[in-house]
Amino acid sequence: MHSKNNEANNVVNSMPTYPAKDIMYDFNQAYHRNSNTVHIFDNGIKMTTVEAHTLKHICQNPGLTITDIVNYWGRTKGTVSSQITNLEEKGYVFRKKCKLNNKKVHIYPTDSGLEVNLRHARYDVKEAGEFMKKWLEKYTLEDLYKMNEYMEFYIKTAFNNK
After folding, report:
1. Residue 162 above 60 pLDDT?
2. Residue 7 counted as domain residue
3. Taking the model in full, what pTM does it have?
4. CA distance 135 to 63
5. Which residues 6+ apart lie within 8 Å of 91 measured at CB?
6. Segments of 13-78 assigned E as strands
7. Which CATH number covers residue 145?
8. What is the rounded CA–CA span in Å between residue 148 and residue 156?
9. If residue 114 lies in a helix (H) or strand (E), which one and from where to where?
10. What is the pLDDT of residues 58-89, one digit of tens each?
11. Distance between CA 17 and CA 40 in Å, rounded?
C-alpha cells in the first residue's frame, strides 16, 4: 500500500502544472458557478441548481431535518438553513415541529414544491439530452460512460474521504 501511495505521489508531482493538475480546480469552479446560477424552467420558474436539487432531495425524502440535509450535501448549517428559508418563502416547502420534540423541525414539500420539482426533472432531462448530443459529436458513448465512472470516483473520494 505504501509503495502505491509513493507511486501516486510521483505521478502527481511529475504532472505538468496545467491542464492535469488545474483541471480539477477549473471543473469545480465551473460547477459551483453553474450551481449558483439562476435557471428558468418552464412557466418562468426561477431557481438555482442548488435550490432545485435541495428541493428534489426534500421531495424524495419528506420530513428531513436541516441536519439531515447538512449531512447529505456536506454544506454548513447556515447555508442549508438559508436555502430552506428561500424555498419556504417561494412556497415550495414548509416546516413542521416534531410532536415528540418541539426543538426538532421537519421539512416537507408543498404541492407547489412537488410541481416545481417535476418541472425541474423535465428540465434536467432536456439539458442532459442536449449535453449528450454535444458530447457525442466529439466523443463516443463509451467515453461518456467512462466520464461518469470518473465522476463517481471523484465524488466518493473527494467528498467522502474514501
Report:
1. no
2. no
3. 0.75
4. 38
5. 110, 112, 113
6. 38-40, 46-48
7. 1.10.10.10
8. 12
9. helix 111-138
10. 999 999 999 999 998 888 999 999 999 999 99
11. 37
Q: What percent of the chain has pLDDT over 70?
A: 85
Q: Is 94 helix (H, G, I), strand (E, B) or coil?
A: strand
Number of domains in the chain: 1
Fill in the amino acid letter for 28: N
Given this model, what pLDDT does residue 14 score?
Answer: 59
Q: What is the pLDDT of residues 81-137, one digit of tens each?
A: 999 999 999 999 999 998 888 788 999 999 999 999 999 898 888 888 898 888 889
10: its cell numbers: 510521483
Q: Residue 137 sits in which domain range?
A: 35-160
Residue 10 forms part of a structural domain:
no
12 in any annotated domain: no
**Residue 62 preceded by cis peptide, ω within 30:** no
Residue located via cell numbers 410532536? 99
Bridge pairing between strands 46-48 and 38-40: antiparallel
Domain for residue 13, yes or no? Answer: no
Q: How many CB atoms lie within 10 A of CB 36?
A: 11
